[in-house]
């Protein structure tokens, strides 16, 4: 299926206190995104740290997010797992809690075959009625959805697209060619947002838009309008900030940046740690150079 959403999605931070989720901060983050034109919010993706949250916390965050977003943007819940049964269970729960769509990362650590990937996504998509976006991020998972495999997955009803973060533009171009007209391509790599949009990507699912939602949406709209030179100039201006958001593993720098902006993200949960002081200073400098008051 195509056109589940077009535009910009933010892979949302989950703000924490010492005792749990900071729901006041989460509501402010949701409003910050919607006020700046973000089209979809990804809740409990990698940036949201679901691996270190209890099942009760995840369910409450999903309920709260659906209530606060209130139809003003698409709601996408992360539901992937390295167990097909667990991924199916999480997907069914997410649909019941009001998700508009799902993002399902490939199985990680136990490293299935390409045929295993097809059957994994077939099981998830067959268990729900809402759109499912595949997530390819082999640097984290150890598994790479190859273009020929994604072409097979795209034939499955309610597979809506792939969030592509393999980092290989040659592979991404081949995937785009094979799935065109069957499902959509989304950028999952902020450094490659512009080239992926330029080859026909339907949108992007971004970490940096936690910090720069307005500019990220503006860049997307410039591409849609065919104003590629202006889009490239804006992307070039954003790149120093994007680079600083990945000096350490995501979401460590993104949370630090959000705290600098007064969004009260708190600290990451262990085993992730607070951003190193030197990286914190270079991040602050990049944000100030971009024109942000931090």
TrEMBL record:
Chief site of localization: cytoplasm
Assigned EC number: 4.3.3.7
Active-site residues, record numbering mapped to chain: 135 (proton donor/acceptor), 163 (schiff-base intermediate with substrate)
GO molecular function terms noted in the UniProt entry: 4-hydroxy-tetrahydrodipicolinate synthase activity
Subcellular location: Cytoplasm
Gene3D superfamilies hit by this protein: Aldolase class I
Amino acids binding pyruvate: 47, 205
Chain positions of site Part of a proton relay during catalysis: 46, 109
Top-rank EC class of the record's enzyme: lyase
A single cellular component GO annotation: cytosol
Alphabetical list of CDD domains matching this protein: DHDPS
Family: Belongs to the DapA family.
Known partners and oligomeric status: Homotetramer; dimer of dimers.
Protein name, as recorded: 4-hydroxy-tetrahydrodipicolinate synthase
Species of origin: Candidatus Borkfalkia faecigallinarum
Gene symbol of the encoding locus: dapA
């Amino acid at each position: 299926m195509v056109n589940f959403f077009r535009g910009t999605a933010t892979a949302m931070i989950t703000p924490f206190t010492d005792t749990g989720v900071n729901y006041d901060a989460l509501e402010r983050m949701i409003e910050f995104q919607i006020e700046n034109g973000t089209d979809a919010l990804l809740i409990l993706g990698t940036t949201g740290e679901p691996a270190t949250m209890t099942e009760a916390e995840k369910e409450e965050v999903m309920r709260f997010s659906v209530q606060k977003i209130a139809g003003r943007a698409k709601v996408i819940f992360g539901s992937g797992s390295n167990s097909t049964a667990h991924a199916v269970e999480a997907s069914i729960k997410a649909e019941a809690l009001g998700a508009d769509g799902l993002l399902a990362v490939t199985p990680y650590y136990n490293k299935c075959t390409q045929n295993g990937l097809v059957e994994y996504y077939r099981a998830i998509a067959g268990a729900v009625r809402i759109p499912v976006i595949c997530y390819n991020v082999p640097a984290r998972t150890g598994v790479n959805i190859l273009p020929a495999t994604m072409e097979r997955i795209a034939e499955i009803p309610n597979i809506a697209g792939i969030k592509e973060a393999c980092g290989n533009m040659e592979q991404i171009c081949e995937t785009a060619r094979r799935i065109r007209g069957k499902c959509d391509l989304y950028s999952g790599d902020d450094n490659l947002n512009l080239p992926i949009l330029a080859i026909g990507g339907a949108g992007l699912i971004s970490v940096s838009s936690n910090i720069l939602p307005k500019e990220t949406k503006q860049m997307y709209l410039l591409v849609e309008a065919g104003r590629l030179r202006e889009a490239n100039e804006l992307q070039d201006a954003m790149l120093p900030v994007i680079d600083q958001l990945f000096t350490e593993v995501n979401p460590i720098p993104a949370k630090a940046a959000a705290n600098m902006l007064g969004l009260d993200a708190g600290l990451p949960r262990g085993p992730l740690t607070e951003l190193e002081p030197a990286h914190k200073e270079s991040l602050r400098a990049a944000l100030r150079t971009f024109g942000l008051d931090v």
